[in-house]
Specification:
390 residues, alpha/beta, 7-stranded mixed sheet, 38% helix, binds pyridoxal-5'-phosphate
Length: 390
Amino acid sequence: MQSDTHAIHGRLHGSGKQSLVAPIAMSTSFDIDPSTSFSADLNDPAADYIYTRWGNPSVQELEEKVALLEGGEDAVALASGMAAVTGLLLSLLKAGDHIITSNVMYAGVREFCHDDLVRFGVSVSAVDTSNVEAIAEQIRKETKLILIETPCNPILRLSDIRAIATLAQQERIPLAVDSTFATPVLTQPLSLGADYVIHSLTKYMGGHGDAIGGIVVGKRDAITHLKQKANIKIGSIISPFNAWLINRGIKTLPLRMQRHSDNALKVATFLEDHPKVKQVIYPFLSSHPQYGLARRQMKMGGGMLGFQLKDSHRNLPLDRLSFIRYAVSLGHDKTLFCFMPTDELMESSFHLSGEEQQQYRNFAGDGFFRMSVGLESAADICEELNRLLA
Ligand SMILES: *Cc1c(COP(=O)(O)O)cnc(C)c1O
């Protein structure tokens, strides 16, 4: 079956159930066999439901569907995208280990690696992962994970998953890809050789801006280990209600990604032609520095773009906007945008200097607007931007 069908149905369990839409299983506990062990480590994870922190039907339905969409064996849904990343890191790493990450990625993840992982004795090399050599140079015998994000938040720089996976496999280091911006509709990192795919389900997967969640997809044994640690021990489980909402949102993911991508290309083209705009970054514009890789690695351009103005970014007349919202987050039905000031992000999150900071500035200048192009009419979005920039 094609992914459009998987997005609607998830894993098929046969007919004979009464409701066509599964109920939300809010129960924390389930009837158990008296022989059930109280230690999660002693129970077969595939056995019956016991307690919702260990497993829940609504959560499992979401996990099965995302695993199918990514072409993975299994998945574990977590409380947020951050919980997915931190759960993976905390479950895999111990003091003395080393990891390699992108030097530009979701700010919370970058900050966790820079400020917190090191507290547990894990050393971190943050490099420009759009350059495979830069990764190769950092590999040592203690390296236990490579973590990349493509296209990366906020600057939409890409990393070549296949090339990095080839290197990682040679060195026997697992590769995790945060594919939140791409979604399985645009890119399937596991098919390119990655070991783990991570999503903030809060974004395109849920798609409506009403539920926070995260997920990690991978091999069955690896995911079972992650479930034991991140869900059962650390406790960062997703609410069954959120899992149900996100599962519903995913039904339209293929349709929405098509529309997000069509709209974003139109808006990107409009902005590129606008006299007040200095630069637009969008993977499917031929002006993107990695346009060739984007066309190879992504089926569509996605809904995210960045733009810089020629004049000062401050004092934009936001009161001229009617439906476009000035807000963080992305992947909603609504168009959202906000300013990303380079100096501030360097200090708070990315800590780049010299050549590396210059490479960031090639995408973002002194600061740029990150826009999540919504599902409204592209003509309306462009008209509203025209009024804003007039
Ligand atoms: C938003 C985001 C996250 C964090 O996800 P939350 O659900 O907000 O915790 C991680 N990675 C990327 C690429 C994101 O955009």
